[in-house]
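Pipeline run #58 for the internal structure catalog. This entry was flagged by the ingest filter as a single-chain record with no existing model, so it goes straight to prediction. Upstream metadata was stripped on purpose; only the residue string is passed forward. Reviewer on rotation: M.T. Logging verbosity set to normal.
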Amino acid sequence: MEKKKEETLTKKTKVKEIKKKVAKPKTNKEEEKLRKENKELNEKILRLSAEMQNMKRRNEEERAKILKYEGEDLVLKLLTIIDNFERAINLDDSNLTDELSKFLDGFKMIYGNLKNILENMEVKEIDCLKKPFDPSTMEAVLTAHEEKVEPGIVLDILQKGYTYKDKVIRHAMVRVSE
């Protein structure tokens, strides 16, 4: 019986020791370390959350910009066609036969339709003749000295410039007074 009592006592003491170990509160160092790790993880979560929001915002802005200027490549290709139509229309039509004159009239109609389409797409010609030179919308290709004209005034347009919505897509090539 005494063996049983001893065994129960040893079992009880073992159980008490285990309970003490389990129920033993963490030391201040361990507790401080856990608090510090918790704080660092919370800060990391906040940084990652802010970074994700910034990425989402930038992505939406970029997508809106792409959608806004989605037809820019097509417009640039059409501008070269418009230039060619203008050259053909500006030919001296006084020496043309009736048949060639009819072709020229057809060119003028096609040119007018293309201009209307571009205007509907918010493509606008940059108005710069007899105006002060603006480097943000024009390229000075040539300079010339003319009397009675102030320096920095556009004298001739060598190639028209255009804006698409609010963006310059082709700078005007101009001759400027010195």
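catalog note: The chain has a mean pLDDT of 86.
catalog note: The chain has four helices and six strands.
status: ready for reviewer M.T.
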